[in-house]
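Minimal example, chain plus zinc ion.
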Amino acid sequence: MSSRGEPSPPAGATPQDRRTSWRITSTCRVACSTSRRRDDRIHGVAQPGRELARARELVAGATRAVALTGAGISAESGVPTFRDAGGLWHNYRPEELATVGAFERDPRTVWEWYRWRRGFVADCDPNEGHRALARFFLERGEAGIVTQNVDGLHTRAAREEAGDGPPDAALPVEIHGAIARDRCNRCGLRAEPGPEEDSLPRCEACGGMRRPDVVLFGEMLDPELLERAQSMAARADLCLVIGTSAVVYPAAGIPMTTLSAGGSIIEVNTEATGLTGVAAVALRGEAGVVLPLLLEP
Ligand SMILES: [Zn+2]
């Protein structure tokens, strides 16, 4: 996506200190993690206070921020990752069920599996990372959250943190859809699930078959949602990349779009990713611990 090919290191970076990494854990809130690591992208003596301060400066100086989130932030809420979600279900692998072909052949089985997965997600709550992000965007207004997660936890955090106010500024663009919502397979109308747990739900508008409103294997992402996400990233001067390795396109294009437009990237992840090398600051730790420290006044 970058028009200039390989991105350059952030301005002002030196070989000694351009990548300092650190770790925050719940038991030891800040601990050096990388001073002895042999990772080309991670240099120098860890100075967590300085890195956090640098990241907070970037946040304070940003006019418009976009956040891209992935499975890492949800895992902290106990949402199983796709492949962890109970592993095999009735001897099917997830890759066999979350496909267009499977839904066409056997929609009842695919529905049964998704209802089972909905049950997992319904038992999870937004964590302090979701809440800190929601408060940040409710206050700042621009530009917003893009998520690869289908669990709806950003939406819940936005509604809960907004209280009686409008949650809109913190509602995410869900580029992979939302597992708790239905969508008509024929006309695309989105709808809340009905009570018909044992039958195949039908669209109220056209009578077509409803499906879970998520992107299945073999499907393209919704171009309208992608366009919105890309346009948010292009307008932003800061991209927070949280709990995702962001190496798979099109999601990977979001931070690269901000970078190409002259903005900076802050990475929040428990481990180094393919994006660490181009991030202005890489903060190592759980989103639920790091984001309140990064975003709260
Ligand atoms: Zn329909």
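The pocket of zinc ion is lined by residues 184, 186-187, 189, 203, 205-206, 208 (CB under 6 Å). The two ends are 34 Å apart (CA to CA).
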